[in-house]
Amino acid sequence: MSKRTIQQLPYEHDELFKGEISRMIPYHRMYGKSYCVPALTVYQDSELAELQAASEAVHRIYRKVQQFIQRYMPDEYLVERLGIHPGLLRAVRMEAAPDGITRQDWIVGEAGIKCIENNTDTPTGIPEVAYLEGKLLEALRSEGMSEDDIALYGPSSGMDEAIQSALTELIHFYSRKGLGTKVYFTCYDWHVEDQTNTKYIMHLCEQAGFEVVYAPLEELEIIPTEGLYHRGEQIHILYRLYPLEYLIEDREEDTGLEVGQALMDMVADGKIGLINPPQHIITQSKGFTATVWSLYERNEQTPAFCGFRLFDDRELEVIRTYLLPTYFEPSVFMQNKEPYVAKGIWGREGKGTHLIEHPESEERLECVSGVAQNAKADQPDLLHQADAPLTPEQEEAAHIAAYYEEQPKIYQRLWPMQSAEVQTEEGLFHGYVLTGIFVIGGRFAGVLPRIGEKVTGDMAYYCAAAVANEPSNPPAV
Question: How far does the signal peptide extend, from start to end residue (predicted)?
């Protein structure tokens, strides 16, 4: 398989990521190394056109299945198969007509393009795509450029407008329910990446004409059944960059008050509108991916269950072409000795994901990223040192690893990733490309390429997207 083309920029990291760029993307370095690299991931016009059409078609199928689950599937299915906390059920069954901000993860290569995951609850990577991509293309053009360089353009130039349009629809949706139009934006204030993503979206919302307030999670106060407050002001619309599967477990340390449950009860009672809406946790669960495939395989049986055929012929073709067989148990792959991936249903950044490339030998590759990876390297024989005390970092790493490993899993056919080589401060990195596609308000909005290991974790590099103009198929202007 051929490598993905990477266009290196004629800059060192610190020459480029400074000044305004450093202020806008303060996490251009993470975990002690560069995260953003001075390079571009090059796609062809034809690839972008297919990704645009395919991502929107897949999104429509996701929305259809999400609504099918909300209307027809019993609570037991949502809890046992999707892993949704019982305390979220009332809220997740509330149907919000407008679409929010979502990001699909695609593998793009010679074997065809496949959507492998859907990030719909709290997708990040927004400032990189909406802002940094354009700045890197500007940097390329400011140097002596070849005709090939001139032909490169950014695929994500419409992302800001797409975010504003989607937010406007959601705010008006909540306004019609009596919640007003003032929006509070929250995340953990200490988390630089989350704060930057949150404030970027907040500023776009403000530019769209809405009153906005930044309210860190640490400053929010909940009075059960009454309301959510920030510095004495009641909140009616809340953008939160905080996963619902975490939020529902939150309790006050001093009193034990279940503040997460209290908040979600008020959401279900219509007192608070969330962005993204609670229904997005249905599509966030990796159990949802297995559900889509199960319904695809049983499409002819759906009339007996709900009175109609769920997918039409065109939708069946989209699923067959762009999605992968995914199940709640691995027996199909084991019987066929077919490589597959095991994923925790709430896995994030590669955590809880294992590649089984040789099922007959049960060999698997694991991705343990961030602090957990460092802790493992620092203590290679940790399990054999029963008396050795763990450092706080190792305790946290062990807790995180256990959280993801103990989750129920889904099993998906392994699809070959395209390799790439990118120059970094540590030298030439040989990795694999995962292409994130933002679908916002139901339409294609931007591209987030990352180059990492075979399981893309939080140590992967962001290498901005650029599209090569093909003379026979110029981009629409």
Answer: none
